[in-house]
Amino acid sequence: MLFIDPDLPGRLGVSSRALTGAEVPWDVVSNAVWYSVLRPIAVGAMLTGTGYTLYSMRESILKSIRGALEASARGAGQNAGTRLDADVPIQWTIMAIAALVPPIVIIYQHFARSWTAAILAAAVMTVAGFFLCAVGGYLVGLVESSNQPVSGLTLCALVIAAVVMVAIGMRGAGGVAAVLGVASVVCCATCTSGSLIQDLKAGYLLGGTPWKMEVAEVLSIAVVSFFLLFPIMWLHEANLVTGGIGGRALPAPQAGLMAELAQGIVGGQIAWGLIVMGCALGVALIMIGAPSPMLIAVGMYLPLETTSAIFVGGLIKGLADIAAARAAARREDEAGAKAQFEERGTLLASGLIAGEAITGILLAVLFLRGIPSLTRVMTGRDTFAFVEPWGGWISLAAFALLAYVLIWIPIRKRVFASKDVSSVL
Question: Is residue 70 part of a domain?
């Protein structure tokens, strides 16, 4: 471990421990190793995984571009087969890119104070954004949009942009600003690509017209971008005492990592050895035929609380499939029953995700209105006495109840009507 990361003892405070005799807690050690050693290795593996994914998708990407150009040559929306095959003409997309890139160049120049750096950063943003959106959309099909590794894809664009800035001799605050500008645009683009692909899939299943959905997506994103700008500013200003966004009250670990990575590469302080080790790990995973090297790298990169939650969700899904299979076996249309169970379970889980997002917005509104805690407003205290000794057990019980609901409701709701489903749970 010391060979991989010689500065690890300093980050763990080993020298101060030798003076005071205090032991470093194991969670501090594990977090430091994960944050400073494992994550850079994961970033290198993600770079390799991204390149491999793009290479494996080369025929699909070229086929999609060729199909879009051929459809445009036939005429916008004409002779496209059916309305389900009519997309926004590729000429519109190219004109939109040509119209949006110059303003972004001006923004980059404002921060970087260099037209050369701004133009190169915009070029990296355009090319990297195109290919990483394709990779992000592909991964959404594997792990769903809620688990899309946006930060990993953004880090790939950030590393590429940082290397370009270093190659042209652009260092200091201007180079870091240009790199972060590329990362921010690519981040928004990959997020949008995953959401758009999910929406288009749902629209296809419901018989929607693609080009109408695409126009609606563009308009909605433009409106929402202005709407979300102000809550973010308000949250930052309301927490300036604790450091604002990225501070103690509103931590932003992914953004902090990207800022440190940009400063490290542009300033020449990045752990290139760990990045190269990660790239070698990615190559090894490809050579042994790992099902998805990118997902393995993402699992290394994400914190344990996130990966463990995904793992537990997979266990719940496995139990739900077993219960559904037992109940469906009693029906004549077994395949149809399983399909209905899948649809209802997905709808229920999606509703829980949406409800959590709405609750987060409501809590943010209460916070902006000066209400730090609903418990304090209703009871006059910040927390109840039973939370410390029993809070963990109560949360486990609530989680078990949630797992039961995710299994029980999809089976009960008219999927296996008139059948005894209690025996399968």
Answer: no
